[in-house]
Design brief:
Length: 328
């Protein structure tokens, strides 16, 4: 079957609220730098009042990745849940306006739309407190079979692994993708999430996933060992993996072989929010287009370099043009 979409993603539909802060602010608030933690609506509302001037933008990890694919000129679809409220309308408008297919019916009568409060320290590190709200209500019935069956790659956001209903949605998406010969990709999302579900995640990756995205901390957390040992173990358990390493670039593991790709050049890191999401966008776009794995990783590096050069998790210039300028 010919693919209608390069990638269909299943993930949390979130509106990001991004503000700059000093490290001392994180200490006072009792927040672990660089982490993502789930919070209640009341805690989120309270923290919001103490944050600095903020930028609000439609986000969510997999949603950001689909935005990157659209910026590269790819065909993307997104499955996630918002409420029938103002934030939900903002999210739907924003993601559709950039060319991503999104038509999941909004939640009526439940919690409000999700939002992530992101505090960015001077070194560009982001610390996230997320109220999932309606995003928490994603269920298997929200998985539209045609969107899975007609995608070259199906991309699953690891943050949803916290939720039993979302895991059932994953199972449905994985089954449909497998039955139609589609590639299944999964991002580990956060080392704290990996800590909570290590055993179940390893089983899921071994049995249901073709491509894994991770960063150094996540892969070390997954196997509770040093980086080199973790990479060797990962290579023995999955078909393909891409591990991001910040300024050191990325490492691709395929068919028992490993190679490194340097990071794309950048003058200054402003905000690392969305770096992994945009790396995944470039890599997935290249993979869906049948490009060599090294080129996929380079496309990921170009996309990641663009997003960390400004505040916000989505591209502000055409990634397609940047890729062309880089000879990709």
């Amino acid at each position: 079957m010919t693919a209608r979409f390069d990638v269909t993603a299943v993930g949390n539909a979130i509106v990001d609220v991004i503000a700059r802060c000093e490290d001392s602010f994180l200490t006072v608030e009792g927040l672990t730098k660089g982490s993502m933690q789930l919070v209640s609506q009341d805690f989120g509302a309270s923290l919001y009042t103490r944050m600095g001037q903020a930028v609000e933008t439609s986000g969510g990890s997999a949603g950001n990745t689909m935005a990157g694919i659209a910026s590269l000129g790819g065909r993307a679809a997104f499955i996630g849940k918002v409420a029938d409220d103002q934030l939900g309308e903002i999210f739907a408008h924003d993601i559709q306006a950039i060319g991503v297919h999104f038509d999941v019916a909004p939640l009526i009568g439940g919690p409000s739309s999700g939002r992530s409060l992101i505090n960015v320290t001077p070194d560009g590190q982001r610390t996230m407190c997320t109220f999932l709200g309606a995003a928490n209500e994603l269920v298997a019935d929200d998985i539209e079979p045609a969107l899975i069956e007609q995608a070259a790659v199906v991309y699953l956001e690891g943050y949803l692994f916290d939720l039993a209903e979302a895991r059932r949605a994953f199972a449905k998406a994985s089954g449909l993708a497998r039955a139609n010969g589609r590639t299944i990709a999964f991002t580990l999302s956060d080392s704290f999430m990996v800590d909570r579900h290590r055993g179940a995640l390893r089983e899921f990756l071994r049995t249901q996933v073709d491509l894994v995205f991770a960063n150094e901390d996540e892969v070390k957390s997954l196997y509770e060992t040093d980086f080199d040992s973790a990479v060797r173990t990962l290579g023995g358990e999955v078909k393909l993996a891409a591990v991001t390493r910040g300024a050191a670039g990325s490492m691709v593991i395929a068919a028992g072989e490993t190679f490194s790709v340097p990071a794309a050049p950048i003058e200054k890191v402003v905000d690392t929010t969305g770096a992994g999401d945009q790396y995944a966008a470039g890599f997935l776009f290249g993979l869906a287009q049948g490009r060599p794995l090294e080129i996929c990783a380079k496309l990921g590096g170009v996309a990641a370099a663009e997003v960390i050069s400004h505040v916000g998790p989505r591209p502000q210039v055409s990634l397609k043009d940047l890729a062309a300028a880089s000879g990709l």
